């Protein structure tokens, strides 16, 4: 059940408040802050070394924070040992107890919390049914496939009914096909249990398909927090634009600025009006345009003129690699629909940028 | 998902498979010559008649076992009662060896844990330190230990000098001295297998236990100890078995009061006072006890694994 706070709105499950983590002289987290709502699927996304796993381990209690607070439904847990925090973790390599069968693994947390053996058995079987492993209760972890082990790990962490479930790249050990199936399943289980999930991944596709909100991290800082659509369509900086999905970053000259709108000169000299992600001043800038938001038009028309260098056949789409007059690379994705004309290598083409989809970025 | 094969049932194939039996020949020969043959020889000797200046007469008899278990009086003509002397020595030896094993475990486990949790680069240095005494002969080490703990030795001198004690400890010729000797002799046999097990231990399991509301002691009891148990069992066997048959430490540090099986057997084969069939019989009984304990353990393991 989503908990309702005194003001009547949806409650905050986890409040990460200015968390700093230092290892000696190295700073892994530079004052990270955000809220995770009840029942939310929240993803920490970033490249390896960005601090996402460190942050997750701080919430779980495996790492001590160097500063800041972590509140679980209002109570600061940042200095509690892990076994006193009502959060449970699904580990990257699952960390199932090898000497116990599946049922005993799932019962472990319940028994530590003082459940009777009888109640714990019933609850464990219920959760195993939820992850569709009811028939495997008597197996040892070593007798299960990777996907089954992953579900045992999930059941074990869900059984005690944590206030927040932490998942540390739980899908990375699975092969691609299985990973896609588990994504759907995991999201379904999250909806059914209505527990806040904090999901760590470096896979942007995973983040986009599963999350309610994403916090994009790099270098120990949160770069942007938003829905998948917001971070994909309105990235706040070059890092987010480049990390999530593919994008073209065109070098432009900013001519005039009017609030959050700006007029820029594109390569080739045509003017173009676009939204700016952050306050900008006249000078050089970068225009981010997604490959699928560029329309192919006749040479001489549109906003840019380019020469086709190569195409890549992707099945549903065709990717065109082209170059502008100043040798800047541009990637365009066109749908592989019946009758769509694919320009030859070396052909001159015109490119029309979708006005609402281009964003001016400064850094 | 059906058909997940239990480990160890793989159907290997390939060019090396057919050579298996032939390649095993040296191993079987080794086991035959150095293990089976000596034990058989000992079994046969235990049923022979003793020759007075050592050796045996090929005349089958149960005399050796009779002497071990039954008391027929000084001249062998009284009705038999149970002979407690040798059973007592055995019992004391098992007790001493068990205690030494326990001490080695209590000290050895934290030591192994400490080494296995060090930085990879410094681990081998710590292991080397543990094994250094093994470059010295056991006899010399045991004599040195006696020198260290005797009333006029450095330990006593030091304690007297600091004023911790006001008289000599009188350690030599006590059970405690034997314990110190056994502990010192066999500690590495406890440390090394436990180290090997702890080194392979996945510390994410401890994190998982803590994450599931287990405190430090519960984690140790329910997760760490069961997972590293094979190493602990191996260490206990490696300490218990040689401690049971040890004769240097009891002889040199314990004196006559702490006579153990090892010394009893050693005496039967050394010098003119010896009785080879009796020594062989005592060895057979010792072997039976050790094998019995190991068998019981193996049984309990098989049951636990289902």
UniProtKB/TrEMBL annotation, chain A:
Query: Which InterPro entries did the record assign?
Result: AAA+_ATPase, ABC_SmlMolc_Importer, ABC_transporter-like_ATP-bd, ABC_transporter-like_CS, Mo/tungstate-bd_C_term_dom, P-loop_NTPase, PotA-like, Transp-assoc_OB_typ2
- Gene Ontology biological process terms from the UniProt entry: putrescine transport
Which residue ranges does the record assign to the ABC transporter domain?
14-244
Task: State its Enzyme Commission number(s).
Answer: 7.6.2.11
GO molecular function per UniProt: ABC-type polyamine transporter activity; ATP binding; ATP hydrolysis activity
Q: Which GO terms describe its cellular component?
A: ATP-binding cassette (ABC) transporter complex
The UniProt keywords, alphabetically, are: ATP-binding, Cell membrane, Membrane, Nucleotide-binding, Translocase, Transport
Reaction catalysis annotation: ATP + H2O + polyamine-[polyamine-binding protein]Side 1 = ADP + phosphate + polyamineSide 2 + [polyamine-binding protein]Side 1
**Subunit relationships:** The complex is composed of two ATP-binding proteins (PotA), two transmembrane proteins (PotB and PotC) and a solute-binding protein (PotD).
Provide the family line.
Belongs to the ABC transporter superfamily. Spermidine/putrescine importer (TC 3.A.1.11.1) family.
Please describe what this protein does.
Part of the ABC transporter complex PotABCD involved in spermidine/putrescine import. Responsible for energy coupling to the transport system.
Please name the PANTHER family in this protein's record: SPERMIDINE/PUTRESCINE IMPORT ATP-BINDING PROTEIN POTA (PTHR42781), SPERMIDINE_PUTRESCINE IMPORT ATP-BINDING PROTEIN POTA (PTHR42781:SF4)
Q: What is this protein called?
A: Spermidine/putrescine import ATP-binding protein PotA
Q: What species was this sequence derived from?
A: Palleronia aestuarii
Automatic annotation (TrEMBL), chain B:
| Keyword Membrane listed | yes
Q: What GO biological process, any one, is recorded here?
A: transmembrane transport
| UniProt xrefs under InterPro entries | MetI-like, MetI-like_sf
Q: Which residues form the ABC transmembrane type-1 domain?
A: 90-297
UniProt cross-references to Gene3D superfamilies, sorted A to Z: MetI-like
> Topology in the membrane?
Multi-pass membrane protein
Q: Alphabetically list the UniProt keywords.
A: Cell membrane, Membrane, Transmembrane, Transmembrane helix, Transport
- Intracellular or extracellular location(s): Cell membrane
Q: Where are the transmembrane segments?
A: 27-48, 94-115, 127-149, 176-198, 219-241, 276-298
UniProt xrefs under SUPFAM superfamilies: MetI-like (SSF161098)
GO cellular component, alphabetical, reads: plasma membrane
Protein family according to the UniProt entry: Belongs to the binding-protein-dependent transport system permease family. CysTW subfamily.
UniProt xrefs under PANTHER family: INNER MEMBRANE ABC TRANSPORTER PERMEASE PROTEIN YDCU-RELATED (PTHR42929:SF1), INNER MEMBRANE ABC TRANSPORTER PERMEASE PROTEIN YDCU-RELATED-RELATED (PTHR42929)
Specify the protein name.
Spermidine/putrescine transport system permease protein
